[in-house]
Amino acid sequence: MVKSGKSPKGKKITLSVAKNCIKITFDGRKRLDLSKMGITTFPKCILRLNEVDELDLSRNMIRKIPDSISKFQNLRWLDLHSNYIDKLPESIGQMTSLLYLNVSNNRLTTNGLPVELNQLKNIRTVNLGLNHLDSVPTTLGALKELHEVGLHDNLLNTIPASISKLPKLKKLNIKRNPFPKADESEMFVDSIKRLENLYLVEEKDLCTPCLQKCQQARDKLNKIKSMAPTTPRKAIFSNLVSPNSMAKDSQEDWR
Question: What are the contacts of 170-176 at 24+ separation with CB within 8 A?
Fold first, then answer.
């Protein structure tokens, strides 16, 4: 019986178990997948598998990530979402091969994010959503390769201009934060609507006919948007078979 006040022991991961959890991704990368295994403590044995390209420890009960995680020098993809982590180690800044970092749905505060994050010069995606951040770490503004940033479901009341100035930013999720004005997040997103006009390749790499087709498709889409009705439509509940007793009198409205 587990004594009151103590954390559950969790599943013990051995080196043998970990080796059997290595998968090859469709693009030939080695992924160590230890997600959803009831792990409460970072398994030190996996440091001997530091040649993997991807590490998934999501959906466990891990509270602390050790400094030794920096031994994964080849790691390009790190998923730690849905744990109990309240702080990231400073050594994470040494993992300069990282392209993807997901630490959403944890217990992170702004103070729990080390300044050393600004050393991740190659990172493309950072998800910090569903945490307890009350301000955006200034380190994000130094990550010029960022394409996607998740800051949703935190305690933010403002977004620094340095985020909107990230040169390669394509997607920013800041939904469900307590901004002072309801439309502040929309105003901020408007400032990066230049992203909608980006091509998947640079214009100079397109032949003239292809570029014209892209431009025509964009013009057609804009025309359709401008013709869209501005008045809200009534909701249609197509899956309802029969109304409940309270709705019988207004069937025509909701059908």
Answer: 170/195, 170/198, 171/147, 171/195, 172/148, 173/129, 173/149, 176/152
Ordered alpha helix ranges (H), 139-230: 161-164, 184-190, 208-227
CA proximity to 47, closest of 4, 18, 90, 21? 18
pLDDT value at residue 140: 92
Question: What pTM value is reported for the model?
Answer: 0.71
Sequence-distant (≥ 6) Cβ neighbours of residue 68 within 8 angstroms: 44, 47, 91
**Rounded Cα distance, 130 and 116, in Å:** 22
The identity of residue 88, as a single letter, is L
Token pair of 248 as six digits = 């019988």
**43 SS3 class:** coil
Q: Mean pLDDT, to the nearest integer, of 159-166?
A: 89
Indicate the SS3 state at residue 102. strand
